[in-house]
Specification:
single chain, about 70 residues, mainly beta
Length: about 70
Amino acid sequence: ITLSARNVLAGKVSKLSNGPVSSEVAIALPSGATVHATITHDAVNELGIEEGMNASAVFKASSVILGVAS
């Protein structure tokens, strides 16, 4: 697959948590950091996501919004 997005973080699925509406996928990166993504149950099934498999988090956004507790 070829993508126009340039921000790709490759790693392994370290945890898959299925909630009532969606699933959270944790990808452990080689640096030791973890990236989390929330996706639909259908997406998990269509992609065949399982713990231990290789996966990549792909980012394409014009901005990132951060928040802190006040």
